[in-house]
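Hello, quick one for you while I still have it in my head. A protein chain has come my way and I'm curious about its shape. I'm sending you its amino acid sequence along with the backbone structure tokens. I'd be grateful if you could look everything over and explain what you see. Here's the protein in full, and shout if anything looks odd to you:
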Amino acid sequence: MIYNNLPFAKYLKLPGLNASKLKPYSISPRFGYYKEHKEFETSEAMTTGTLVHSYVLEGAEATKKMIKDNYITSGFPINKSTGKPYGQDSKKFKDWHTEQGNKEIVTEIQLAHVKKITRAVTSHSKSKGILALSPNRETAITWTCEYTGMPCKAMVDFNGGIIAGDLKTFGKQLTRNSIEREILDRQYHLQFSFYQDGLIANGINIQEFYAIFVQSKDDYDVGCFRINDATMDKGRNDYIKAIYNYQKATDDQSEFKDGLFPEIESIGIPSYHLNRDDEIDYEEKLIIEQMLGEVCAK
């Protein structure tokens, strides 16, 4: 099913597995179970990403309302002796924050930073073109996984016609190698394939998936990438594995679920240290020296 303009709070209440839950389960049932039951913690980088998403995908007016409803941006308690706000680790600040309902804090400096990142995305010719072809923003979908029969859900950043994609803020220098490593380390390939298959299950014939990466520091560089077929295939295999491990962890009533190594395996030093052409074979060297010594002795 497709849900347009569904508030995120209502999306969270929809039944089904999402990519965030599945990613750790692709490692092992034990790791997935641990992450699922670990208390969720926000960070400044996550808040920046949320606000950039809202500005780029929803627009300035919607974002201003979202900030007003969900964040504290002013009114911080002032230390009279310095004329500046108390530090966030001080008792005065913590007491004041509790009175405000512990809403997340966003400073003016952070908001200015978010707006710079947003302008970088919306002024980049290729990202602007991709977004223009994708009028459907933050579309919520639910479906039944054709491989496992499990209910699934997702909220896709943008889609239109035969393309869909995801916007990612990136805290490192934007290079091809760093992006490839980020996709693997953060299991974005699993997420991208999961989204594409969910859209296809809802009758939207997505043939290409794009990722827009924007550097969230320094020069705010932007890169637009079509995710290649081999990566999408790997992502599909990984999310199917994740669902399998989720089902296994759910069925397993023991305290400790299977980890990464449930069976005995062979192991050794890293393969690049083995059979190196530049490495001397000392066993052979000693045999040769011994033979030469015996010849000389005769």
Notes: The first strand starts at residue 2 and ends at 3.
